[in-house]
Amino acid sequence: MYNCKIYHDFGKEKESPIILLDINVPTLRALAQELDMTYQQVADLSSRGQNKKYLRFKYSPKVEINKIKQNINNA
C-alpha cells in the first residue's frame, strides 16, 4: 500500500499548503494509472527521496510517495 501526496507549500508559516492530491493505492502501478504516468516515472519519484531536481523550480508541487506498512492480524 502506498500513499501519494501532491501539494504546493508556500514556505510561509501563515499559509497552509494547497493539497492537490492525497490518496492511498495498493501498488505503484495503480498510482501510475491514477497520475497518467508510466510505472517507471512513478517508481523513480518514489525512490529518489530528497534528491529531486524538480524541487529547484519555484512553483513546482511537492510530491511525496510513501510506503504504508500494513498490519497483518493472525486471528
Explain briefly what this protein structure is.
This protein has one domain (2-63). Helix content is 23%, strand content 28%.
Which short descriptors sum up this protein?
alpha+beta, globular, three-stranded antiparallel β-sheet, 75 residues, 2 helices
Task: Give structural notes.
The longest helix has 9 residues, at 39-47. The chain has helices spanning 28-35, 39-47, and strands spanning 2-8, 18-25, 62-67. It has one domain (2-63). Strands 2-1-3 form a three-stranded antiparallel β-sheet, covered by helices on one side. The chain has 75 residues and is an alpha+beta fold. The mean pLDDT is 83. Helix 1 packs across helix 2 (39-47). The chain contains two helices and three strands.
